[in-house]
Specification:
single chain
Length: about 270
């Protein structure tokens, strides 16, 4: 009986989206990465966990012309993104791999192993998941009990936490207490609702010195000072949570540290 030959690993991989950049960088050997998207190394602001590590890899603003010029044997896209490029590449006979969005850590496991198989990098994929599991165990071991009630407040006032981010918050010992009834249809939470909720912990998504962009103005709203003495407020760089993947568990350490700080500072009546 003749064994079926293994599927050859792609030799010229192009990633066209931030969240596929994260996977391609970790699973594909450098010499086989033809290009990542420009967001991988962008610093205005930093939205990628690989902004420094990937600085020597070619980055592109993906268009049909720029992608085809690289002569890829596989283009990795996030499902549903850049539909015109997707159609043009298919018409040109270029293999396209659509990566589904992960809505849970279970999905992250499935996507990681699927990509490991497609890239001929199953061992690398298993190593990523093993590291993820170690971080989950470490975060759970140090998570405060009962969980700390928190609101994750993002630029422009977004506070709608779901999917992998919600799962990681719970692993770190945090419960999302943003009042759903006060949320707008787009997932924004007015400052007044944050103050009324008076969470044990208010996590401001970004850096304290986040510039003057209007999107960040709400994180510096003077009305939030009304929470002084009642709520532990802290800025946190949660870039690992922007794209769901094994690296997202790096955010569990940051969240866990904030949760433990808030519990240590909370009045006994709040912590019990």
């Amino acid at each position: 009986m003749v064994a079926c030959p293994a599927v050859a690993a792609p030799q010229r991989v192009v990633s066209t989206f931030l969240c596929t950049d994260e996977y391609v960088f970790r699973l594909v050997p450098r010499e086989h990465i033809a290009a990542l998207s420009w967001e991988a190394t962008d610093r205005r602001p930093v939205v990628s966990t690989i902004a420094d590590a990937a600085r020597h890899i070619r980055v592109i603003r993906p268009s049909t012309e720029t992608v085809l010029a690289l002569k890829p044997d596989l283009v990795v896209m996030y499902a549903g993104t850049n539909p015109r490029l997707h159609v043009n590449l298919k018409n040109a006979g270029v293999p396209v791999l659509d990566v589904p969005w992960a809505n849970s850590l279970s999905d992250v496991r499935a996507v990681t192993m699927m990509l490991g198989e497609k890239f001929g990098a199953a061992d690398r994929a298993r190593a990523l998941l093993a590291d993820m599991d170690r971080k989950i165990a470490a975060a759970k071991a140090r998570a405060p009990h009962p969980p700390v009630g928190a609101i994750l407040y993002e630029p422009q006032g977004y506070a709608n936490v779901e999917g992998v981010t919600d799962e990681i918050m719970r692993i770190a010992g945090i419960t999302d207490v943003a009042p759903p009834g006060a949320m707008t249809r787009t997932g924004r939470l007015p400052v007044e609702a944050v103050i009324a909720a008076a969470p044990e912990l208010l996590i401001l998504g970004g850096e304290a010195r986040s510039g003057t962009a209007r999107a960040y103005a709400i994180l510096h709203h003077p009305a939030l000072r009304a929470l002084d003495g009642r709520t532990t407020t802290a800025f946190a760089n949660l870039t690992p949570l922007l794209c769901p993947g094994p690296w997202s568990l790096d955010g569990a350490q940051t969240l866990g540290e904030l949760a433990r700080r808030a519990r240590a500072l909370a009045p006994k009546s709040t912590a019990n």
